[in-house]
Specification:
The chain has 9 helices and 25 strands. It is an alpha+beta fold. The strands form 7 sheets. The protein has a 5-stranded mixed beta sheet with strand order 19-20-21-23-22, covered by helices on one side. A 4-stranded antiparallel beta sheet has the order 1-7-3-4, with no helix packed on it. A 4-stranded antiparallel beta sheet has the order 5-6-2-10, with no helix packed on it. The protein starts with a strand and ends in a 5-residue tail after the last helix.
């Protein structure tokens, strides 16, 4: 990879998110073997940073042989191994029965942000994400797989699969702007359709599933139509999704999504929620450890405006005034998972809906579209959201009451 820092650096920092508690417990493990710059192996320091006992750490730091100045390009080679755990209801794992493996965030992620430099937030034992990533160009993702298997991945497939040196088949994907990488390989079929400048690729297990590729394509296009009417143009020309045997709901990666084997018509709220992350996390990034509400509450809000599924109602574990809390703060609570989900998703989505009602739908929608435009391809903060709404005091008041804005 090549990386151009926006300030002076003397080290490199990577995150091994496959080692966080939820994925490490089922046997997943990511081990960094070496980091090289200018042909030299750098000394490594691996820290637990929230990984469970016995798992490799989530924080990998490498000291540069000489500090690099602002704007000075650094070419880095990272060698690592990934071990997959069976039956993981998370972003990385495999199913022996279905012969499918899925690998999301299954690589050392550069932990750099233009505004703050290196980010070292601990992983926490709470459902959800703690990653932060600037947008990067995926020059090439090559997956060499046995010829009987297919591959679905983030990005556009480049050409047709070709023969790899070891007798397997090489599948190559590229993307202009992504924050994360995911792919699925195994006993799957990948179906792609292109309409109105948007390609949707659906990777389905070859066994029995609740809905076929056509039903998924219809559901996604319906949801994207509603979301684009609310939020603005779809920020990509290619969306990839994988239907996985052991995932219970959905995991977003910007232009790619991992879904459970659900009925996309009956579970419209889930489809719309995960697609809303194209705008909130994919286009407008955020530090998911520090400000999880900036993507999850906004995605829930958008899902409710488009589908009115009622998921912000009847939440029994909402913590009053806590929508804006960090993942580290949630990890210290007694019923962390339930309180986090109910408060950030349910309470945060509800607060945004209340803000919209208070300010008026037209004015609020215009303000959120302007927020998206200004923060596009950056990492947003609550201050950015507050600035976008400062001319709507009733909306700001609703978000302050919920603890989203301080």
């Amino acid at each position: 990879m090549t990386f151009t820092p926006t300030q002076r650096i003397c080290e490199l920092v990577f995150r091994s998110w496959a080692n966080k508690p939820a994925t490490a417990r089922t046997g997943n493990a990511l081990t960094v073997n070496s980091i090289r710059v200018d042909g030299r192996n750098l000394p490594l320091q691996v820290s637990s940073a929230g990984a469970p006992r016995g798992a490799p750490g989530t924080l990998v730091e490498a000291t540069l042989p000489a500090c690099r100045g602002e704007g000075e390009e650094v070419a880095v080679e990272v060698s690592f191994d990934i071990r997959l755990g069976a039956g993981t209801d998370e972003r990385v794992g495999y199913s022996r029965r279905e012969q499918i493996a899925w690998l999301g965030s299954a690589y050392p992620m550069l932990a750099w942000t233009r505004a703050d430099g290196w980010v070292r937030d601990d992983a926490v034992d709470v459902v959800g994400e703690t990653a932060t990533s600037e947008v990067f160009r995926l020059r090439s993702l090559d997956v060499n797989a046995p010829s009987e298997y297919a591959v679905g991945a983030i990005g556009r497939p480049e050409g047709t699969p070709s023969a790899a040196p070891d007798g397997r088949t090489r599948h190559r994907f590229t993307a202009d702007a992504v924050r994360d990488v995911t792919f699925t390989v195994g006993n799957i079929d990948v179906t792609s359709t292109s309409t109105d400048g948007l390609t949707i690729a659906v990777a389905l297990p070859r066994g029995r599933v609740r809905a076929d590729a056509g039903a998924w394509d219809t559901a996604l296009r319906r949801a994207l139509h509603g979301l684009s009417s609310l939020l603005g143009p779809i920020p990509t020309d290619h969306v990839s999704l994988s239907i996985l045997p052991d995932v219970s709901e959905g995991v977003e990666f910007g232009q790619a999504i991992q879904f459970a084997d659900v009925d996309p018509d009956k579970d419209r709220w889930l489809i719309t929620h995960e697609l809303a992350h194209l705008w909130f996390y994919g286009l407008v990034g955020n530090n998911q450890a520090r400000d999880p509400w900036l993507d999850e509450a906004f995605a829930t809000y958008a899902q409710e405006v488009v589908d009115r599924s009622g998921t912000t109602k009847n939440r029994g574990h909402i913590v009053k005034g806590a929508v804006g809390e960090s993942m580290e703060q949630w990890s210290r609570r007694g019923r962390a998972d339930a309180q986090y989900v109910d408060t950030v998703y349910g309470g945060g989505g509800r607060a945004l809906l209340q803000a919209r009602d208070a300010a008026g739908a037209d004015a609020f929608d215009a303000a959120i579209q302007e927020y998206i435009r200004r923060a596009a391809w950056q990492i947003a903060t609550p201050a950015d959201a507050a600035a976008a709404l400062e001319h709507l005091p009733s909306a700001t008041a609703a978000l302050r009451a919920a603890g989203a804005l301080r």
